[in-house]
Amino acid sequence: MATQMQAARDGKITDAMKIVAEKEHQTAESIRERVARGTVAICANVNHKNLVPAGVGEGLRVKVNANIGTSSAFPDIEPELKKLDEAVRSGADAVMDLSTGDDIDESRRQIIDHSPVMIGTVPIYQATVDAIKERGAVVDMTEDDILRTIEKHAKDGSDFLTMHCGLTRAAIERLRREGRIMDVVSRGGSFITGWMLHNEKENPFFSRFDDILDICEKYDVTISLGDGLRPGCLADATDRAQITELLTLGDLTQRAWERGVQVMVEGPGHMPFDQIATNMKLEKSVCHGAPFYVLGPLVTDIAPGYDHITAAIGGTLAAVSGADFLCYVTPAEHLALPTIEDVHDGVMASRIAAHAADIVRKVPGAMEQDIAMAKARKRLDWPEQMRLAIDPELAKKKRGARNDEDAEACSMCGDYCAVKIVNKYMDEK
Amino acid sequence: MATQMQAARDGKITDAMKIVAEKEHQTAESIRERVARGTVAICANVNHKNLVPAGVGEGLRVKVNANIGTSSAFPDIEPELKKLDEAVRSGADAVMDLSTGDDIDESRRQIIDHSPVMIGTVPIYQATVDAIKERGAVVDMTEDDILRTIEKHAKDGSDFLTMHCGLTRAAIERLRREGRIMDVVSRGGSFITGWMLHNEKENPFFSRFDDILDICEKYDVTISLGDGLRPGCLADATDRAQITELLTLGDLTQRAWERGVQVMVEGPGHMPFDQIATNMKLEKSVCHGAPFYVLGPLVTDIAPGYDHITAAIGGTLAAVSGADFLCYVTPAEHLALPTIEDVHDGVMASRIAAHAADIVRKVPGAMEQDIAMAKARKRLDWPEQMRLAIDPELAKKKRGARNDEDAEACSMCGDYCAVKIVNKYMDEK
């Protein structure tokens, strides 16, 4: 069975392309053309049966991912399935299962089975947990352990796999010379770095990249090229280590595309606001327009408890400057595994960033939502304002708590509502 | 008694300038020089006795304002005094009393008396409420009513007064030709527009500007030139009506400076993200570097309940591009008068935006906070991370709820903490 990219290059418009075209108010042919070039990825594993396909990339609505998954401190699957439901209900376009808890196979399979949105997973997490359990230490993991885990995730229906393939010995050498404050903060990146340093070997995700492509081609898994050296604090941003890895990700993007395997590239991280646009344009240039998937960027390090906001600030500028896919950050980041409320708040903040960027990117249908809201405000049409709100439930709750149900204005201005007054006197003349 | 600006031009370094210099880690002479030019305003009414002066403008830390005040729906003063305390406790640099409730004189006086931070008020609000009570309609207000109210606010110790002096008949004519969706959403702007349309007269804040300068000079009140025609939705942004008013604000800035009266200029509003930088640079240019005080800008209209986030997104870019003073927007915006929790959340979101911009503006001491946090994270030093957090109380609460007290890592990664692993293997080699 051909991958979406292979089909596109053969001039075929797949069912997935048709669905994406309809949802994005664009022509199927224009989607096909972008999938063929690689600037749009349709992450749709042939084994993810109940998926409603979505596209990520050039000219499309900016997508939002929610990370869920068990940890050693919270190993139960049940709360994570509830988070999946909450993420989808809140409007997430994708969910990543980052489980490192008790039964990783089971949690992944249940999440994929339950999910209508694309699912991403990170095989190195499971390979590491298994290696520690079975062999005693992450550094005793074998290359074949890793490849077997990748194959298992692909076979189970993961639509995209995050793999830190560009974290080479050369990049680690640059990292050492940089003298970073935080070194490596990517979880997968830290496992691989530990393994590479201890074993004095090249990164298996890099050295065995052709074997990985075989697996991804077979199931049409999109490779999400992870940035193991993403900066973990503002002071470490845009350094030579980070850019060394990015250049390798550009090389690997090209190799994957030559095989017809779809690619996304992952990006930072923590970063001063004025470095974000440069980073986005650099990725787009050296990775030949591959869809860019960013975590944040967080524009300050000092706001734990509010990192959904620091990420929304950075994410908006990132998406305006080229990023196509925003990984949410929840208010629990840097503090704890998120609760279900954190999942909701994280998705909403990222959706706001994505939508604000969609307006600038002139995505069909985006600005129209804001115009409809403005018109409802001008008419003081409260039911319509609630309907058009990004989170109608919250808007209704906040209004209801502090207003009479039939109030014409709101309790902030009451009798002195600007809209009421201007409607009166502008009409009078 | 000389205004700060008059003293600065006479080469005098006032006590207020010394305090500002110390707080900003800069020399008093450099503060004096900027006050003399008008690019820094020290809003310090001679009658605000317990004020700790602060500066707004070029090269200084970006400041945050919190709006409080009674409304017809919530007329009591008591909750507003609690909001003042909460705003100051949360780190607001200024508070505006926007009261339109029962006893406006009393609420203003109590708020000024209680406040160590600069206080702004909007005389047209009170003049309107009084006109409706005493004369039956806003349109029956007289020019002398307005001037008397301005004098009263100045005498009571308001540090800055928002006055919509640039909302001229010419600007309203442009507004009509534009065919906006929302017309006027500024509350003060709507009162004045109604008055002007009904009475077919020029805006008294414009025609009596010299009389207003007399009052402001006497008490060293900083004029905050309000933008009555600020866009109330994305579709209305950066139109000819808005820019017509801005050009007049530039003229008036010059006239005020000629008299030694300090000025800030107020700005939008609702605005697509890609128009924000242009708006900031335009204000700085046509108002000759006057401090810029912005409300938002909100980068989408569809997120009622989350407008502290939409404002933080726009506010960061605004402050990076030249804005010096951010008026907070709370989660209650467009829905209701804020609660005390909304005040807290609004201040925090704006402080994050201001700080993210301070890093880019290279404000002394800003980046150092992020570096200290990064180093504490690298050491897994949790007490220090909590201490350095912008909201230590929230950070502790969120961490405490989902972690064992003595846990080395956090419950997101637990045993698989990237920092722990890298610290181990980077040190090993």
Question: How would you characterize the overall build of this protein?
Answer:
- With 429 residues, chain A is α/β, with parallel strands linked by helices.
- Chain A has helices at residues 4-9, 15-23, 28-37, 78-89, 104-114, 123-135, 143-156, 169-178, 187-199, 204-207, 209-219, 240-258, 276-286, 307-320, 340-361, 366-378, 382-388, 392-401, 418-428; strands at 40-42, 55-57, 63-68, 94-97, 118-121, 160-163, 222-225, 263-267, 292-295, 325-327.
- In chain A, the strands form 2 sheets. In chain A, strands 3-4-5-6-7-8-9-10 form an 8-stranded parallel barrel, surrounded by 7 helices.
- In chain A, helix 13 (276-286) links the parallel strand 8 and strand 9.
- In chain A, helix 7 (143-156) runs parallel beside helix 11 (209-219) and helix 16 packs antiparallel against helix 17.
- The model of chain A has no long low-confidence stretch (mean pLDDT 96).
